[in-house]
């Protein structure tokens, strides 16, 4: 059985004080959450102070990005050991905003993924199609292409432990959610593609989240889908009460 992962992606929101205040509130609200993993992927400057607060609670931390080199002349980038030193278990790799606004390529994301595995960081790899691709009916081809390119040379054992996040670009921050059936259809396809690329055990083990305007009011029906193993949550993760309702979706 796959344990669902509810991960908040705060994006470029919250100062250190705001971040600490929110995790202090959240840790009490989610302390009794059962059979679910919880993570907050916060801005890099917030992580050190957040790590002091989350301690041995059930909240894990994640970075929103990570570079593939260990150190050197890469101004403004973060290495795997840097994010681990502030308590990160996870790193989001290839969020659509990184791909679209910052021009991150599939080749770069493949290097980042391999670096995450080599450093015992669990990557949350985001894949998903644009509205034009959904309308043209090429969304299955799009995610298949991203999986092949981003996972090129990645071993099955690493895939079993990673997280995939299906995030259709047209549903991110738009308030427009994929229907549970649309999400299930393509996430099932993603799992089948992992099986084709690897094997049935790997496909069964890998956690696949849905992301795109997940809110307290729609999380339950999304989580009722058999192939959906959690959510990557932007807007609704910025407030402790709404995120705790998503974590405790049952
Ligand atoms: C995201 O940024 O990964 C996301 C899913 O955002 P939102 O929940 O706000 O749509």
UniProtKB/TrEMBL annotation:
Q: Which cell locations does it reside in?
A: Cytoplasm
InterPro entries in the record: Aldolase_TIM, TIM_sf, TrioseP_Isoase_bac/euk, Triosephosphate_isomerase, Triosephosphate_isomerase_AS
Pathway(s): Carbohydrate degradation; glycolysis; D-glyceraldehyde 3-phosphate from glycerone phosphate: step 1/1; Carbohydrate biosynthesis; gluconeogenesis
Which Gene Ontology CC terms are recorded?
cytosol
Instruction: List the GO molecular function terms.
Output: triose-phosphate isomerase activity
What family, per the record?
Answer: Belongs to the triosephosphate isomerase family.
Q: Which organism is this entry from?
A: Orenia marismortui
Q: Kindly state which reaction or reactions the protein catalyses.
A: D-glyceraldehyde 3-phosphate = dihydroxyacetone phosphate
SUPFAM superfamilies xref list: Triosephosphate isomerase (TIM)
Q: What assembly does the database describe for this protein?
A: Homodimer.
Designated gene of the protein: tpiA
Where does the signal peptide begin and end?
none
Active site as annotated: 95, 167
Q: Which Pfam families match?
A: TIM (PF00121)
Protein name as annotated: Triosephosphate isomerase
Q: What is its EC number?
A: 5.3.1.1
What does it do?
A: Involved in the gluconeogenesis. Catalyzes stereospecifically the conversion of dihydroxyacetone phosphate (DHAP) to D-glyceraldehyde-3-phosphate (G3P).
GO aspect biological process, one term = glyceraldehyde-3-phosphate biosynthetic process
HAMAP family annotated for this entry?
TIM_B
Q: Which UniProt keywords apply?
A: Cytoplasm, Gluconeogenesis, Glycolysis, Isomerase
**Gene3D superfamilies documented for this protein:** Aldolase class I
Q: What is its main location?
A: cytoplasm
Q: Where does substrate bind?
A: 9-11, 173, 213, 234-235
Keyword Isomerase part of the UniProt annotation: yes
């Amino acid at each position: 059985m796959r344990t669902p992962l509810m991960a908040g992606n705060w994006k470029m929101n919250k100062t250190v004080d705001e971040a600490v205040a929110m995790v202090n509130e959240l840790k009490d609200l989610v302390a009794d959450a059962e059979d679910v993993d919880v993570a907050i992927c916060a801005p890099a400057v917030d992580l050190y102070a957040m790590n002091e607060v989350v301690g041995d609670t059930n909240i894990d931390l994640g970075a929103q990005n990570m570079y593939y080199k260990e150190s050197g002349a890469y101004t403004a980038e973060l290495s795997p050991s840097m994010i681990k030193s502030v308590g990160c278990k996870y790193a989001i790799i290839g969020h659509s905003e990184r791909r679209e606004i910052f021009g991150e390529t599939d080749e770069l994301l493949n290097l980042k993924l391999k670096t995450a595995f080599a450093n015992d960081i669990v990557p949350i790899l985001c894949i998903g199609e644009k509205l034009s691709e959904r309308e043209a009916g090429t969304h299955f081809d799009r995610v298949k292409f991203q999986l092949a390119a981003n996972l090129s040379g990645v071993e099955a054992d690493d895939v079993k432990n990673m997280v995939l996040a299906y995030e259709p670009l047209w549903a991110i921050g738009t308030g427009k959610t994929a229907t549970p059936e649309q999400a299930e259809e393509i996430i099932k396809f993603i799992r089948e593609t992992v099986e084709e690329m690897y094997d049935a055990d790997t496909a069964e083990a890998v956690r696949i989240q849905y992301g795109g305007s997940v809110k307290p009011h729609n999380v339950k029906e999304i989580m009722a889908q058999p192939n959906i193993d959690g959510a990557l949550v932007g807007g609704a993760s910025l407030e402790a009460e709404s995120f705790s309702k998503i974590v405790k979706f049952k």
